[in-house]
Amino acid sequence: MQANPSRAATLYALGAIASWALLAALGVALRNVPPFLLTGIALVVGSIPTWPLVARHPALWRIPLPTLALGVAGLFGFHFLLFLALRTAPPVQANLVNYLWPLFIVVLAPVLLPGMGLRPIHVFAAMLGFAGAAVAILGRSTQLDGAWSWGYLLALGSALIWACYSLLTRRVPPFPTVAVGLFGLVSGILSLLCHAVLEPVTALGTRDWILLILAGLGPLGMAFLLWDKALKLGDPRQIGILSYLTPLSSTAVLMLTGAGPFSWSIALAAAMIISAAILGTRAR
Q1: CA dihedral in degrees (131, 137, 141, 144; nearest 10)?
Q2: pLDDT at res. 142
């Protein structure tokens, strides 16, 4: 009996979402680790599970250079900006702004993918989503200083990068999911080179290494493979709807780990962003 591709895609997507729920909390817990070093180690660790399969079938990593460049830009850019945002803005608010990426997938799909149109409901959803981000940013203070504004812009940039990466993987020639491990490995090496040039030498303790390995094997490793499998097997719009569970679960984990208190503004911002994203995906 053949597995239902749609059901399998749903399970893959849920696996990725469950892993990403831990990402922001791990980033906050590792705030003592410079962002290039954190990103580099975690991405290299995340690529390790693909090494045995590639050792047996080297052709799995023989992909066109434009495809590799897209993967590196997506993985390296997304995580570097996210970790920088989490340490330059209040973590819970920055995390919610970053999780506008599901909405950006909806809004940018007509621009980046052929055969999709942009309807008024998409525009309304985009406005509602940005309003939710504003509530998240302004919820704790009516005064924005320079550090906060830069942190939110970094989170926004991270969201845009991930949305573009997710959509553009459907425009490049088909590639095996195992190739995502190569994206992570090259991105990790690039990040470590940047660390060597731009950041001070940092001693890592046992706790740091444990958290880095967890981040690499989960949110910065297996989650990418699951996400790619989901996009290859399922309807991107349905997968997009599932991905709106991510900001709620991620923010909940942040609050449970003490990174930020619960408040009405956080609940309202989450509700607005989720509602906007669902509205945006219902118009086909």
Answers
A1: -110
A2: 46
Residue 18 φ/ψ, nearest 5 degrees: -60, -40
pLDDT at 18 over 50: yes
Structural domain containing residue 98? 5-282
Contact 246, 17 (CB under 8 A): yes
Answer for the pair 148, 75: CB distance below 8 angstroms, yes or no.
no
Number of domains in the chain: 1
- Type of residue numbered 2: Q
pTM of the model: 0.81
Residues 6+ apart with CB under 8 A from 12: 226, 227, 229, 230, 233, 234
What would the mean pLDDT of 32-55 be, rounded to a whole number?
A: 93
Burial (Cβ within 10 Å: 0-12, 13-18, ≥19) of residue 44: buried
Rounded Cα gap, residues 28 and 145, in angstroms: 21
CB 103 within 8 A of CB 276: yes
Residues of the chain above pLDDT 90, percent? 37
The closest alpha carbon to 121, from 110, 135, 113, belongs to 110
Distance from the Cα of residue 114 to its chain's centroid: 24
Task: Report pLDDT digits (tens) over 171-207.
Answer: 899 999 999 999 999 999 999 999 998 888 888 999 9
DSSP state of 202: -
Let me know: does 217 contact 54? Beta carbons within 8 Å: no
